[in-house]
């Protein structure tokens, strides 16, 4: 797979820092066989694992830059675990994933949606019902929401994208007392290789199973077509690129993504 994010600035940048969560890690269901990142217009300052255990690269934008390009390319081997990742890794306590953020804080519409869903003793069955109810209430439609849209707003609008579906699911899970988190990553599409964006879904912690993935937008749990890259309590903690720049004026961003299957000789 390859992922290129490019920024063009109408005035030279005087200073900038970017936090890149673009490097997947070997974990349950996936093994990173090769991964390379190259930069144009920036230099790497540090590599570390953030509080969510995400592989993170901190880069500084070179003064005077008018174009920044971040290119990633690699090979990840995946297998089918029916969406089940298993035990919790990292140092964050489970209650951390029960706390609402501004993006997932429930309002009357979210409470109404959850109140209309039959709740069973079987948490896994209940979560699948929640996923189906969200997809029935919020149609997948590009351009109706933004990265700043919160779960309550997306539900009120009745349309959104994978980020909105994930936030609504996380909000409902937390209202049920089930820890939940946001996942950013890649999905190999059956009908195309080239894409304009990555993908997002949610994971909930189910007793006796551990973390289980739910892709509300596609109505399934992740399978071998999915590659996990970063997680967090919401989009802001798992966003592929975050940062700040000074002296840049207006900017334009373009993303190109290609995900394809490759058979590896054993």
Give a description of the structure.
The chain is α+β, with helices and mostly antiparallel strands. It has two domains: 2-77 and 241-258, Immunoglobulin-like (Sandwich); 84-238, C8orf32 fold (Roll), CATH 3.10.620.30. 18% of the residues lie in helices and 41% in strands. The chain is built from five helices and 16 strands. It has helices at residues 108-115, 123-137, 151-157, 162-175, 235-238; strands at residues 2-13, 15-20, 30-40, 42-49, 55-61, 65-78, 84-86, 139-140, 159-160, 180-187, 194-195, 199-206, 210-214, 226-232, 241-246, 251-258. A five-stranded antiparallel sheet has the order 3-6-1-16-11, with no helix packed on it. A five-stranded antiparallel sheet has the order 7-13-12-10-14. β8, α3 and β9 form a beta-alpha-beta unit. α1 (108-115) crosses α4 and α2 (123-137) crosses α4 (162-175). The longest helix has 15 residues, at 123-137. It is globular, with a radius of gyration of 19 Å. The relative contact order is 0.23.
Task: Outline the secondary-structure elements.
Elements: E1 2-13, E2 15-20, E3 30-40, E4 42-49, E5 55-61, E6 65-78, E7 84-86, H1 108-115, H2 123-137, E8 139-140, H3 151-157, E9 159-160, H4 162-175, E10 180-187, E11 194-195, E12 199-206, E13 210-214, E14 226-232, H5 235-238, E15 241-246, E16 251-258
**Low-pLDDT residue intervals, each spanning 5 or more residues:** none
Q: Give the strand content.
A: 35-45%
| Largest beta-sheet details | 5 strands, antiparallel
Q: Can you identify the CATH class of the largest domain?
A: Alpha Beta
What letter string, H or E per element, gives the SSE order?
EEEEEEEHHEHEHEEEEEHEE
| Main structural class | alpha+beta
Total beta-strand segments: 16
The best one-word shape is globular
Task: Give the % helix.
Answer: 10-25%
- As a whole number of angstroms, the C-alpha radius of gyration is 19 Å
Spatial arrangement of strands, main beta sheet: 3-6-1-16-11
Distance between the termini: 20 Å
- The CATH level-2 architecture of the largest domain is identified as Roll
**CATH-assigned fold name of the largest domain:** C8orf32 fold
Tally of helical runs: 5
Number of domains: 2
If you average the pLDDT, what whole number results? 91
Protein name: Transglutaminase domain-containing protein
Organism: Novosphingobium tardum
Domain Transglutaminase-like: 154-218
